[in-house]
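ok so for the tutorial part 2 we go from a plain amino acid sequence to predicted structure tokens. step 1 is just haveing the sequence, like this:
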Amino acid sequence: MKPDPITQIRKLLHSSGYIQPCTLTPLPSSGSDRQYYHIVFDGADLPALMAFYNPCVEENRAQLEFTRHFKNLGLSVPEVLATDSSETIFILPYLGNQTLFDMASKGVSEEVIHYYKKALSDLVQFQINGVKGLNMDLAYPVPDFDRQSILWDLNYFKYCFLKPAGIAFNEHLLEIDFQHFADVLAQSKPDFFCYRDFQARNIMIYHDKPWYIDFQGGRRGPLPYDVVSLLHQVKANLPEDIKDSLYNHYISQLRLVAPQEPDHVQHHYNHFVYFRLLQVMGAYGFRGLVERKAHFLQSIPFAAAAVKFRLKHHPLNISLPEIEQVLEQIIQQYSMIEIANTEKLTVTINSFSFKKKGLPIDLTGNGGGTVFDCRGLPNPHRVAALRDLTGEDHAISEYMRAQPITEVFLNHAFSLIDLSVENYLKRGFNHLQVNFGCTGGRHRSVYGAIQMQQHLQNKYPQVIVVLNHLEINKQKHD
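step 2 — the prediction. this is what the tokens look like for a chain of 478 residues:
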């Protein structure tokens, strides 16, 4: 029978001297399988604690060893206050609920920049001094971030993002590019502590200082990896001039501790930016496209936008043609998708092609919405003069309005969506997805989506309506 973490945590608290009654509240998790709990003692003047349950003992042993080592170096990592005999439960101080990511999402203020600079200065200490005397035999799952690790991450991108997203690629050519890219990345010196997840969500701001968590996956590896992870965290969306300034700060701090290393970092930096983008898209694909978790689905357009910017302003200086062509497809498929971030009810209307990409994903994580199949309507594609137009063109609108069945179809669609909108408004929901599909995604579905947009905007002015023409927008970007 699977152990009950809460019972185990209570037993550990009691055996560690915390005998007062307490309340355990589960905390949300993101990409990790760990289970976190906030511990508040009832009626006692004791500070709050945090506990986590992780069935992976090897990973927990790495965290325990790394924590002891980093604390001895004076780095701000939370102390492990207690662990049970199974090594699956840890008790830690509670560091509040504000991360550097939370602060940055409200705007890049001077205070935010201060914490980023502090984090980068501490990163140099983790990387250069943190590796000295650290028992890497406990690193999990491997002690070194080497060429094989690079290939694991590249294949994670292939199998967990490209395939679920329906991105077309030549398997042989992509493998050639992966091998070449791995060779280039493996040239970066692997002699430092590689945190592996040094990003703003893993930096807690508590008592006016940054605290670092989730380093249990660390291992020996190259310097560029972690600074790229922090500065190019796609959903943090730091302005480019701020990234450049922070990068220069990191280089200046690195030069003070290891003056021979900055040139090496600068040589490989752009390669690792691309690699990190591929890696995080693998995570977004697995957690989002496969597991359908909203946070990761919503991150995909940010990643696509970051790739688009990178290819335009900082192109790869090595030949990776198949990787570049799949990146172009990702840009076409996702960077034009708009999703509103608001407490108001938002109706997202998509036109799409059944034949090409199929049903649109729901970036809110709600699992999709109503789908109207427009293939039963007369097809403008069969009229030679209309074939090269789209549902946005006046001639297509005139053609569709002239067909008696179109009005019947749309009136039924309006009635069904009105029921949902009014119900969602009463219940305080904030998102509804509506999809119009046809064979090519260019004529009937586009027309239907536009008509639905106009109908909802006229009838429900309090509702935000977002319109995405997935197929014709993709072709505009070709």
